[in-house]
Amino acid sequence: MAKKESTFLNMLVTLLLVTLASSAALGYIYEFTKGPIAIAKSAKKNMAIHKVVPEFTNLPGEEVKKVVADNDTLYLYPAKNGDQLVGVAVETFTNKGFGGPIRLMVGFLPDGTINDIAVLEHKETPGLGDKMQKSKSNFSLQFEGKNPDNFKLSVKKDGGDVDAITASTISSRAFCDAVQRAYTVFKEGGIQ
Questions:
Q1: How far is 133 from 118, CA to CA, in rounded Å?
Q2: Are strands 84-94 and 65-69 parallel, antiparallel or unpaired?
Q3: Which of 6, 18, 110, 144 is the most buried (most CB within 10 A)?
Q4: What is the rounded CA–CA span in Å between residue 8 and residue 82?
Q5: Which whole-number Å values give the CA distances from 106 to 4, 52, 60, in the listed order?
C-alpha cells in the first residue's frame, strides 16, 4: 500500500473528522447524563430542605417563591405542618467566596430564628474554607438558634458576632453574606 502524501487538505480533513466525532460523542454523553444530574441536584436540594427546617407535611418545592436579588435568584420554600407554617428554607448564594460562588440552604423558623444551615455548593480550599460544612467543622453551628435581629451576621474582625474559620476569613465573610442575604429576603418575602 502506498503511503499518502501529507498535504494541508489531508490534515484539514483529518482534523475536521476527529473534531466532528469528538463533538458528537460529547453531545451524546451530555444528553445521556443531563437527566440523572438534574435528579441528583433536586434530591440534594430536597434533603437540604428537610435538614434545615422542622418536620413538615407539605411539599415545599410546589410552593416555592422566587426572589431576584443581586443578579441571581433566591428560592423560598415554605414548610408547613397542616396549614401552620413551621419554617422557611431559603436557597441563597454569595459570589464573595475565596474559590467562587457559594450556595447555602438556610432554614428559618417563623419568627426569623435560624434553625439550621446546609451547604449546597462551594469551591473553597480543602482543609480551610471547606470547614463551613458540618462534616468538616462546627463553624455553622454558631448560627443555629440565633435571630439575625440581635445577632450580627458578620465576622468578629468586622464588628460582628461570628467566629471566623481559622485562616479562612474570606470564606467566613462569604458564608455570613449568604446568610444575611437569605434573612433579608426571608423578612421581605412575606411567606405565611
A1: 7
A2: unpaired
A3: 110
A4: 72
A5: 65, 6, 14
Cell matching residue 27: 453531545
Please give the C-alpha separations between residue 144 and each of 43, 50, 106, 114, 158, in angstroms, as whole numbers.
Answer: 24, 15, 10, 5, 20
Question: CA 177, 181, 186, 190: dihedral to nearest 10 degrees?
Answer: 160
**pLDDT tens digits, residue range 132-178?**
999 999 999 999 999 999 999 999 999 999 999 999 999 999 999 99
Q: HEC string of the chain? A: CCCCCCCHHHHHHHHHHHHHHHHHHHHHHHHHHHHHHHHHHHHHHHHHHHHHCCCCCCCHHHHCEEEEECCEEEEEEEEEECCEEEEEEEEEEECCCCCCCEEEEEEECCCCCEEEEEEEECCCCCCCHHHHCCCCCCHHHHHCCCCCCCCCCCEHHHCCCECCCCCCHHHHHHHHHHHHHHHHHHHHHCCC
Where are the domains positioned within the chain? 50-189
Distance (Å, whole) CA 91 – CA 61: 11
Residue 145 CA to residue 151 CA, distance in Å, equals: 10
Distance CA 115, CA 27 (A): 42
d(CA 189, CA 79): 14
